[in-house]
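Hi Y.,

Following your request, here is the sequence exactly as I used it, all 137 residues.
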Amino acid sequence: MDRKHSYTNRNKWYGKNNSHKNSNQNKNEESQVKSHFSSHICEYCNQPIEELSSAIAAKENGNPAHFDCVLAKINASEKLAENEKITYIGQGRFAVVYFENPHDLRHFTIRRVIEWENRETTYEWRSEIANVYSQVK
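Below is the corresponding structure, written out as tokens. Let me know if you'd prefer a different format.
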């Protein structure tokens, strides 16, 4: 059976008629969010935090810090054996994981857990993120 396709409504499905409006609206929303968080400085490197949503709380005082800065601080303080690596496991926790085969990252054993963020603490800057993102339409 031979079907004929009509492409007269193709722009409706692909959003071509309104794509410039959606693009401008998304850029405006992104700039609102970024300008709102531009005042946060990393606790460890004293550089601005561009993506506050990927920041993690500093252990000493709960202020935001770059994820990479926290990871570097943990790597500097932990003694790692061969085939061990620091990995983020969620909820403000890191782990020292052991890979029997370093080329196979699917199979590992958690050797120890590093509690970085206090689970019971609500950080003001995280609440700020949630409030701003819930207001963006």
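The first strand starts at residue 56 and ends at 57.

Thanks again,
Q.
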